[in-house]
Design brief:
By secondary structure, the protein is an all-alpha fold. It has 20 helices and no strands. Helix 6 (about 115-145) runs antiparallel to helix 7 (about 150-160) and helix 14 (about 340-370) crosses helix 17 (about 410-430). The longest helix has about 50 residues, at about 1-50. It starts with a helix and ends with a helix.
Length: about 525
């Protein structure tokens, strides 16, 4: 009888449970939407009022932190946390890819390639220096009992993941205040490429951790090159295939433009999943897919599809990035962190600053050795580069991965330290960027910097085209442009010639006026303005 009554009651309980579960899910989703709306509205108000001490990323983070604290106080942590928490797969499959793709897709080709040598030096060699210096300093700090002790390989994994910069807050303030386009290109270009470098280094160190026996330096280097070059090749290959498809498939007619737009949206995810399926890095692959698709496939689209693609990727990237910062603030209040290792966080911040300095100033020295005197990176810009090394979504994502890759206590310590570092850099560095730029005298057009005196990033021509001011000290704009072109052709003549004579004609539709400067720079201005939002 007891068994029968239990059988009779259980279905009723089972019917109630899904209802409560669905209600809790609705409340959790509603809370997320409310926080997103509040973040965008608050960010808009802050931009309108020109309040640079609280950037949009900082506002999103603070909103998540406040809501998390209120959830704890109201004893609703269990129900809200269960539905607000997103799984690691959701983060890597749906939030991170659009952010990384948009970074490559919004990359302005001309400022990027005119500073390509410097950007690659900072992003590849510099990130390698920063990760190694950070890892070794953290390891030595553990040996000296200054901080929580971790094995050397785990310290190098931490150095790799924390070397990924995400200066979206700094770049938006660069755009608002107006600064030299080459400084903007260096900061933005480095942040785009060093994500790929950081994740390749992290995966290499993770594989060494998983298989400690039989590893030597040569095999580690081979494994890194396999991950980085293989992922880059997959991304570039998918980008070229998409360019050929949109060139020859004839999808730009009126009744097929929806299909054209759908295919353009699917190719980035195809690149990401292809690389992951091959055991490579989907993040690296989708980044280079974005660069190639913007340079070759984008011009093969119809005008309506171009407008849709630009707006769509900007939209989902902005939503994803805002949600990531909200989640980080919420996570601090709701998760169980290893706050007992405060020394690890404190000394990690110091070591990261030292590693960032080793990265920026050593790479700037190497770049200046081969650059003409009027194109050298001045000390003011080097300091701005050092200061702009915020940590963001990529560092947070890799730290989230480390919780599963490392022993429980070690992974949780690294995750807690990374979360704290991201929060502090966004709040402190992001909030003080305007003051830093003014102190270094690299904003506006009225200072005596040889770079800023040429013009600012917000200069436009009569057709609202974006004018890229060159590195030069001469006063004649005609001479500056000539020198800029000469230097550009000297530093990138081979790639420019191959691209102009072979790649562009082969992969793109030639309309006769693709080099119209006003059209190009107008699009670039629109892209930069949208990214600042």
């Amino acid at each position: 009888m007891t068994m029968a009554s239990e059988i009779e009651i259980s279905p009723a309980d089972a019917r109630k449970a899904p209802g409560k579960e669905q209600q809790a899910a609705g409340v959790g989703i509603l809370l997320q939407i409310m926080m997103l709306v509040l973040s965008f509205v608050l960010g808009h108000v802050l931009r309108r009022k020109k309040v640079y001490i609280i950037p949009e990323a900082s506002a999103s983070l603070l909103i998540g932190l406040i809501v998390g604290i209120l959830a704890n106080i109201s004893d609703t942590e269990t129900s809200i946390r269960a539905w607000f928490n997103f799984h690691e797969e959701f983060f890597f499959l749906f939030l991170l890819p659009p952010i990384i793709f948009q970074s490559g897709f919004s990359l302005a080709p001309k400022p990027f390639f005119s500073n390509f040598g410097a950007i690659v030096t900072f992003a590849i060699f510099g990130t390698f220096i920063a990760s190694i210096v950070t890892g070794i300093l953290v390891y030595l700090g553990g040996l000296l009992f200054l901080m929580y002790k971790l094995p050397l390989v785990e310290c190098l994994m931490f150095g790799a993941l924390i070397s990924a910069t995400d200066p979206v807050t700094v770049l938006s303030i660069f755009q608002e205040l107006g600064t030299d386009v080459n400084l903007y290109a260096l900061v933005f270009g480095e942040s785009v490429l060093n994500d790929a470098m950081a994740i390749s280094l992290y995966r290499t160190m993770s594989s060494v951790k998983a298989q400690p026996s039989g590893q030597n330096l040569f095999m580690v280097v081979v494994r890194f090159l396999e991950t980085f070059v293989g992922s880059m090749s997959a991304g570039v290959g998918v980008g070229f295939i998409s360019a050929l498809l949109f060139k020859y498939a004839g999808l730009d007619i009126d009744n097929l433009q929806n299909l054209e737009s759908c295919l353009f949206v699917l190719f980035p995810y195809f690149s990401y999943m292809l690389a992951e399926g091959l055991g490579l890095s989907g993040i690296v692959s989708i980044l280079f897919t974005g660069i190639v698709m913007k340079h070759y496939a984008y011009s093969n689209l119809s005008q309506s599809s171009q407008r849709f693609a630009s707006a769509f990727f900007e939209l989902i990237s902005s939503l994803a990035e805002t949600f990531v910062f909200i989640y980080m603030g919420f996570d601090i209040a709701m998760e169980q962190h290893s706050w007992s290792h405060v020394g690890f966080i404190f000394f990690s911040i110091i070591f990261i600053g030292i590693a960032r300095a080793a990265n920026v100033f050593s790479c700037a020295y190497l770049v200046n050795l081969v650059r003409p005197s009027h194109r050298k990176i001045p000390p003011k810009h080097q300091k701005a580069l050092w200061y702009s090394g915020l940590r963001g979504a990529m560092a947070f994502a890799l730290a989230l991965q480390s919780v599963h890759d490392l022993p429980e206590g070690h992974g949780q310590t690294i995750f807690t330290a990374t979360t704290a570092i991201v929060v502090l850099t966004v709040l402190l560095i992001g909030g003080s960027t305007g003051t830093m730029l003014e102190a270094l005298d690299v904003v506006g057009g009225d200072n005596d910097s040889p770079l800023s005196s040429v013009g600012t990033i917000t200069n436009f021509d009569g057709n609202n085209g974006y004018i890229a001011p060159p590195y030069n000290e001469e006063s004649s704009s005609g001479n500056k442009i000539k020198m800029k072109l000469k230097e550009f052709h000297k530093s990138a003549a081979s790639f420019t010639a191959i691209d102009k004579n072979y790649l562009t004609p082969f992969f793109t539709v030639q309309n006769g006026d693709e080099d119209d400067e006003g059209k190009f720079y107008g699009k670039l201005s629109f892209s930069l303005k949208n990214r600042s939002k």
